[in-house]
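User: Could you check the structure of this?
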Amino acid sequence: MLKISDLHVNYGGINALRGISLEVPDGEIVTLIGANGAGKSTTLRTITGLVKAASGSVLWNDTELLGKPIDEIFKSGIAMVPEGRRVFSDLTVLENLRIGAYLRKDTDGIEKDIEWVYSLFPRLKERYWQYAGTLSGGEQQMLAVGRALMSRPKLMMMDEPSLGLAPLVVQDIFSIIKEINRQGVTILLIEQNANMALRIADRGYVLETGRISMTGTGMELLNDESVKAAYLGTKKH
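Assistant: Sure, the predicted structure tokens are below.
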């Protein structure tokens, strides 16, 4: 389980996170919704060690992550699908997947997991030889998710997986997130598409200017009038 307690992060003179606390229980999908600049990406970047916290605690299975080197955090079973996909465009699909397993030494397991990723994303199998830069946006997102899975994570954090994708592709991506979770991977999801995110989430948190303003099950937040008005494009009656 991931447990964040009273986390404060400052950028220069700005308080990006002002004492947030949240939990991501094993086996669940937890989503963090909020407007641009609310602190969602900062939260993920602090968990992975890319951003330094001013104070607070980030416990992963009772081990403190704050202050640990980035590679050690990833070795502990956490993987990140970054915003904007960040695939290696001049490497093939297969080479990108192998990079996801760079910390692993179990050759047989790596080959099995490549086949597992191909079973989740048949399109990647069809295009295994293709340079990642020539794939469509949706295919690049599938590759970014597949690459993260190659580290065999216990927790996968995803930053805006639906950004810039066509609605049909977004549905595919969310179906795959649910399937990955069904196969035992815990998910922490940051998403502008609050409607889709809350539909698949066990629990959601609303982040407003660096503070958690509301929490509940995905369905509770989906049906909350203030959440509908602010994030789901429906007006209060």
